[in-house]
Amino acid sequence: MFRSSLRRCATQARSAATAALLTQTRTALPAVRRQVLTSRSSIAAISRIASITRAYSTEAVAEQNESESAPSAEAEPQVRFADLQGIHPNLLKPIINDMKYDTMTPVQAKTIQPALKGTDIVAQAKTGTGKTIAFLLPLLQRMIEEDSTLADRNARRQARSDDIRGVILSPTRELAEQIAVEARRLVSHTGLVVQCAVGGTDKRSMLHQTRRQGCHLLVATPGRLNDLLQDPGSGIDAPNLAALVLDEADRMLDVGFERELNEIIKCLPKPEEKVRQTMLVSATIPDSVIRLARNMVRANDFEFVQTIPENESLTHDKVPQHIVPVSGWSQVFPSLFELLEREAATIKETPGAMPLKAIVYFNTTALVELAGELFYQQRQNAKNDGSPYFSSYVMQSKLSQQQRQRAADRFREARSGVLLSSDVTARGMDFPNVTHVIQIDTPRERESYIHRLGRTGRQNKEGQGWLIIPNSSVRSARRMLQGLPIQQNSSLSSAETDVAGGETTPHHEKTKALFGALPRSLLATAYMSMFGMATDKLGMAEEVNEWTRLGWGWEKPPSVSHSWAQKLGLANAPGMQFSEGGQRFGDRSGGRFGDRSDGYSSRESSDPFDSMASNARRDDFGRGRSGGFGRGGSSGGRSGGFGGSRSGGYGGKRSGGYGGGRSGGYGGRSSF
């Protein structure tokens, strides 16, 4: 019933829109636009024109890609904040006078006016499109409408921790902090008090500040808010809640917050006791988000706002994507260093080019820690011998909130540098001017690849995507990334060198020396972490054991316990070394970042909700769309398409394709 009502609405809107467009003339179009911009009902109708039940696959998360051939990009109406009706002047002052914003982004223009009507909102919007202000302004306005005294700065004195009027939920600490900063800027001319409650920070300190200063708007992560509401001694309550916002709703479900969300709703006033506005914002609309919407929004008083145009490309077609296959892990880090040095040199020789600013993604926290130490050693050596080096930053879940925030701020402010990260920065985090996204090994899910790639090519700036994968991951990469416009790249000599056959390069020798200077416990922990996500564990064992010998200079790989190996099916794997007393080498990491590590155990790397795959529409990756993220047919048939059916495609059926069926294609072995 929920979905069918959306479809009826979409059909009616399409019919009305088509009829209107046929009768409009080119000369009348500017007047029509002006009329649309000043009419709430018109904008609301526009938001329903798109197919509102269209569940974009998660490549919709990739940042806005305005194709030169798309006429809608040129015709996008400009709406000025100063022309907004129904917003208190004290909320507009900081936007216009302090932030110096004049016109809204398309997402803001489509979202703000429908939300001001007070109906519940389900909005599909990408990150990096100004959506934070799009939901903040209506939320703050509703709070002021219900209590006009909040528009005056004197209201700060009456703020209380047990009378919260607005709540915003975010899936990550970093995104919650960003939203809180933006909210504080918007309320600077009002009496509204904003507080932030996230996991990984001192709860007692947060409660002390909130009780002392009061709180009207609370920005929180679901886990911490649920903890506060369940704790009778916290003093946190929202009996007069005016509005609730769930940002990145799909991501909240992805990381397993559904239980916390349901418990939070039980702690809030029932709709029949206190009417509140709920705004649910999501980059994708899989079945899980629709199910959440059924539970949280008012079925008889909601509006779906589609901010992604039908003719907008859902892929990062403008971002070149390269795959670098290597025969084993011994070539991964030498290839990474060679790529960074080459790209930095190329940029330096290109007039007007932005300096190199790269994010390198790893699949485990232990590998992020290992890479952080490796880059530190490389930088220390470079200062002595004068070779190129990079300022590096580390972001992973084992770090404290303060360490993560400090790293994020430093990389955000840096003109150039390399951020070594787990998936904690793949969504929501905004880092300007990222030129390169480099992914090491195949991500866990197709969505992760898209989310990570979305950190570059933002705001119409240029960017590049690189994927370096060892042989053991080729099969899973071909299956997972089928149809994507990824091109094989063989320009890195470190990737083409036969290390097992005795060949070497300067980058191999330098990297081997760097590994030799790292703590053995750190290397052992990284070694063990790599088996957790491997589908071919025996193949992984062969590769990483070879890596310890050829890449680290060890005679034997780290020792592991028999019980650990038994659980992973590695008890009979050739080359494995077992400790006598069942000792697990590397249970504590001695890395520079000072956090205990138990290998493959970080929250973002565990990727809970395995059952989500059966509910989410992850198979809608552009199926049936020419040139989309397809799986065969017209979708995967483009030249250069990863897994497509034509020449040049990774996994293509003809010659030249990575993994092609004829001789000469990399991966033409029987394993494919």
The CATH superfamily name of the largest domain is P-loop containing nucleotide triphosphate hydrolases
Overall 3D form: elongated
Instruction: Give the helix proportion (percent range).
Output: 25-40%
**How large is the share of residues in beta strands?**
5-15%
Radius of gyration over C-alpha positions, nearest whole angstrom: 26 Å
Report the span from N to C terminus: 45 Å
Which CATH architecture of the largest domain would you pick? 3-Layer(aba) Sandwich
Give the rounded overall mean pLDDT: 77
CATH class of the largest domain: Alpha Beta
Largest sheet composition: 7 strands, parallel
Q: Number of folding domains?
A: 2
Structural class call reads alpha/beta
Strand order of the largest sheet: 3-4-2-5-6-1-7
Give the helix tally: 26
CATH fold call of the largest domain: Rossmann fold
Unreliable sequence segments = 1-74, 582-641, 643-672
DSSP strand tally? 16
